[in-house]
Hints:
Number of helices: 15
Strand content: under 5%
Helix content: over 70%
Structural class: mainly alpha
Oligomer: single chain
CATH topology: Farnesyl Diphosphate Synthase
Number of strands: 0
Order of helices and strands: HHHHHHHHHHHHHHH
Amino acid sequence: MKLKKWLDNGRAGALVQSLMPALLAVVVAFASGQAVWWTAILSVLGVACAHLAMNLADDYFDYKVDMKGDRDKVVRQGFRAMTAKYPYLTDGSETLKTTAHAIARFGATAIALGALIFVYRFSENGFTGPQGAWWIVAIVAACAFLGFFYSGPPLKLAYRGLGELVIGFIFGPLLMVGVYYACCGRVDLNIVFISIPVGLLVLNILFTHSFIDMPGDAASNKMTFARLLKSNVACLVASAFFIFVPFALIILAVVLDYTHPAYLAVLIVLPRAIWLFRSLILFTRGEQMEIEKPAKWLGPMPGWDQIRAAHIDWFLARWFCARNLLSGFCIVLGLVAIILMIV
């Protein structure tokens, strides 16, 4: 298997959605004073492999139900958000068989890394009890079940309007609790709490996508959470919840003296949240949003000149901002945790 090719096919650029929560969980684990460095590395690598396998599996099942004709129709109609999701399959450079092999290899690697962590934690904690190694089995099983049936039959959760919620749960609470346990061999309320706002921001990335691409999803008969909500008003209310509640939870934790006031530094990322929500309001009004060059405080938006030339800046500006909102949130919380650990 040519690794670089399959990293591209598996949309390695989207690993931000999993790696940022995973790395934050590692930092929180080390801040607890009980983390093991090698299990931290293995857990992050395992998360990346599992995410790539899930992305490829999504392509595999999407292609099997032959959405290509609908996607081409969507592009011709001018809804450009759903272009070339799996070009390596549509152009014939790869087949469903080679894609299945790549899924199996990434998945097997993730399982092997998880098995090494399980053996170590089993030797330290045993299997049963409040902090037993059963945590690893339960979390891996839940992630595998939800990850497979995200696109796979018979559940096809992503086709029933539940895809965004599933991803938010996997890459938020399940992922962060799992990585934290792998690192320090226990689960506590601290990591459960911090995983909730992170999960909401992961969910927000997918919801922002489906919100502004409702016509495209409707044309290809794909039900999303945004389409379940139906109206722009309901979608804006949901967006406000996903975007701003993470900040409200941090503020509440500080007010209740549950966490250190230094974590209020995460509010430095709030302007991104405000910009994103305002841009969604403009979208519902049908107002154009001209961005000749994105402001640096919005975070990285690579390939902007090509994006503008393709006339998909209206879409990717919002998607990039949602992604950068998650990464900025995790980075600030992680840096604060490191600083507090040092001082």
